[in-house]
Amino acid sequence: MEFTIKVSGMSCEHCVARVKKAILEINGVSSCEVDLKTGTVKVEASAEGLEEKVKEAVREAGYSIT
């Protein structure tokens, strides 16, 4: 399963690394690509229903879902 979310508040490579780390810690997420320019995060997950967990992890890392 693959999905893309829009994240706001990222301004540098440190932000990208923080978001990526938070997402990759979720069981079932196999990869993620964070694009600072577009503010998008593309996630590859092995199970359905992980999108909400990913969004919550991004929020807990200090960023907003738009």
UniProtKB/TrEMBL annotation:
InterPro entries from the UniProt entry = Cu-bd, Heavy-metal-associated_CS, HMA_Cu_ion-bd, HMA_dom, HMA_dom_sf
Q: Which residues form the HMA domain?
A: 1-66
- What sections of the sequence does the record tag as coiled-coil? none
> Which Pfam families does this one have?
HMA
Keywords assigned: Copper, Metal-binding
GO molecular function annotations of the record: copper ion binding
Is Transcription regulation tagged as a keyword?
no
Annotated GO biological processes are:
copper ion transport
Q: Which Gene3D superfamilies match?
A: 3.30.70.100
Under which name does UniProt file this protein? HMA domain-containing protein
What is the organism field in this record? Dissulfuribacter thermophilus
